[in-house]
Structure formats: C-alpha cells, structure tokens
Amino acid sequence: MPRIAITLGDPAGIGPEVVDFALASGKLPPGFKFEILGDRSAGIPGKPDARSAAAALAALDLAVSALKEGRADAVVTGPVSKDALQALGFPFPGQTEYFAHAFGVQDFGMLLTGHTLTVGLATIHESLAAVPSLLSVGRITRIGMLTAEFLKRRGIGHPRIAVAGLNPHAGENGAFGDEETRIILPATRILNESGTATFTGPAVPDAIFRDAAQGHFHAVIAMYHDQGLIPLKLLDFDNAVNVTLGLPKPRTSPDHGTAFAIAGKGLADPSSMISAIRLACELA
Length: 284
What we know:
Elements: E1 3-7, H1 15-23, E2 33-37, H2 50-68, E3 74-76, H3 82-87, H4 95-102, E4 109-113, E5 118-121, H5 131-134, H6 137-153, E6 160-164, H7 179-194, E7 198-203, H8 205-213, E8 219-222, H9 225-236, E9 241-245, E10 251-254, H10 271-283
Parallel strand pairs: 1-2, 1-3, 3-10, 5-8, 6-7, 6-8
Antiparallel strand pairs: 4-5, 4-9, 9-10
Helix pairs in contact: 1-10, 6-7
C-alpha cells in the first residue's frame, strides 16, 4: 500500500484544518496509507509564534527522513510562514528549495497545476529586479524539460508547451528588451530539438495564458513567479497544486498560505489540499 506523508504546516495556520477536512472528505483515492506529521498542539490558531514555526520545520525534517528511509512514497506539505521559518535560521526562500537541498538535487523546479492551467516557473522566489540577470538558456531549458516530463507522467504523450516572453509584447523585436532574442528563443529551439514536446515561444505574456486556458497548450513556462501565478490563481485558486519537480519522490502542496486570519474559525477551504493529496497519490 503506497504511503503518503502529510505535514500539518504551521499549526497556528489553517494547515491542520484543511488536512482534517481533506481526510474526512471522501474525495481521496482508496488504497493509500496517510501519515500525518506535525505537532498540532504547538500552535494556537491565528497566533503564530516561534514555537509553531519550529513545529512546522520539525515536520518538514520528519518528511524528508520518511522519504529517504522508504517509509513514505510521497509527501504533501501544509502551508508554512516563510518569515517565521527564516527567523529561526531557515536559510531557504521556500519549501521547494528546502526539499531540493535535502536531496542534493540541482536540477529542480516549481510547477503549479490546476483544472485550467499548468505553469512551470523559470525563476521562483526572486525579486523582480533580479529576474533578467537570473534568466539563462540553461535555466529555461531545464524547467521546460522538467515540465514536459511531468506532463508525460500524467499521460500526455507529446505535450504542447508555450514559453512566455519576459517583456511586454515579448520584446516587440527588441524595442522593449532583448531577453527574448538573446535567451528565450535559443532555449525554445534547444527544447524543440530534444523532441520531448512541442515548445512555442517566446510568446506574448499577456495573451498566452488565455490560449493555454482554452486548451491550445498543456502548460506555460513563465519567466518569473507572479507572471505565472497571477493567472493561475485567478482561474484555479481553489484547486491548484504546487509540485516540486526533479525530486526522487513526489512532493506536492496546496497553493495557498497559512491564512492565520481565519485559522480555527472553520472557514478554510480544503479543496486545494484535497487536490494536492490526490496528485501525490497519482504520482506515487
């Protein structure tokens, strides 16, 4: 029986609630064993502190151990407070980078997928000002290949993937920037030469997500965090799942934060957690 580890996240947030709701929903597939990791007594709903953050970090460490030791076949992580973790000395921008470091993986990426859109991110938790200098042919090629592999794993034989431009109008032939011709176009050509999928780009960023939502593409490669997540959360906020690509075992997460303001009030929507657990089961 495949085993899925589920961390509660910060116990002062909505993580414990949405996990409980998801397990009681009747919407999870049969034939899996679910193990909950985390100390829910370490947090008071709506009142995060160092103790609740430490409990969230301890649950992540337990999840890594379970995956490495073969006691779990996939992990679903509840929402954490990045600020609170970093106040404890957590050196990573987010859980994606934490898991990649834990497994010594250099070739990794963040992808979010919902009912309408699937988006791979060329850069993740970086300032907008830093994005142009961080983009490279290798970085875009890597996330393109990882995204194609993910789609194939879900049964899409030859995915169609759009590669978004960075600048307005995809640079307008250099009028608004040269990243498209200098970086994104060469990466798109290399990706197409691999034969693993059909890649189209550089695509005009303000239009390509509409095309993808209408089914013309299976996924979009976005150049930075908000370029991809704004359309995805607009269309799929209640069902989107965060996936860490490139790990030896699947890691998924609901696409929302701790929501401390509503924690403990019975207002949290478990839909994204349900989707995250279902996808972890599928990938496992």
